């Protein structure tokens, strides 16, 4: 006697097992979604909000022109470089054009500072070379 169930019964049993498995997976997925904690707010959005608020504050200071310790041009320049630094340090918050402009401004400022340092060194070396007395050499060299 053949003890294997008929072919129809085996096919129906396999289908029932597959359906039960799929239902079990769907139930587990639903249970996981309903019991999962709420996703935390995007920390990047808060950082971008802070960066944009900082830029707005800097822009307000630039337009006010209120400068007590520097002359107005130097203060505005420093505020503009600070704004460029904010843009460069928060690349996810600004588009490519803003990041490129900010990088260009910072690079130009760095190059200008390097040129000024080199000019001061040249002046110091010339003053040292042209020093005639021991007191002048001590002062310039």
From TrEMBL:
Transmembrane segments: 12-31
Keyword Transmembrane among record annotations: yes
UniProt keyword list: Membrane, Transmembrane, Transmembrane helix
The protein's name: DUF732 domain-containing protein
Origin organism lineage: Bacteria, Bacillati, Actinomycetota, Actinomycetes, Kitasatosporales
């Amino acid at each position: 006697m053949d003890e294997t169930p008929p072919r129809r019964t085996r096919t129906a049993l396999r289908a029932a097992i597959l359906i039960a498995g799929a239902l079990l997976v769907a139930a587990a997925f639903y249970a996981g979604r309903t019991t999962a904690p709420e996703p935390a707010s995007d920390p990047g959005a808060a950082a971008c909000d802070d960066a944009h608020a900082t830029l707005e504050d800097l822009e307000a200071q630039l337009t006010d022109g209120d400068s007590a310790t520097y002359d107005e041009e130097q203060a505005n320049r420093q505020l503009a470089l600070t704004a460029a630094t904010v843009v460069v340090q928060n690349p996810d918050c600004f588009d490519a054009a803003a990041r490129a402009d900010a990088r260009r401004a910072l690079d130009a400022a760095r190059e200008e500072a390097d040129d000024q340092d080199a000019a001061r060194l040249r002046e110091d070396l010339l003053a040292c070379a042209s020093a005639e007395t021991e007191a002048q050499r001590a002062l310039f060299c």
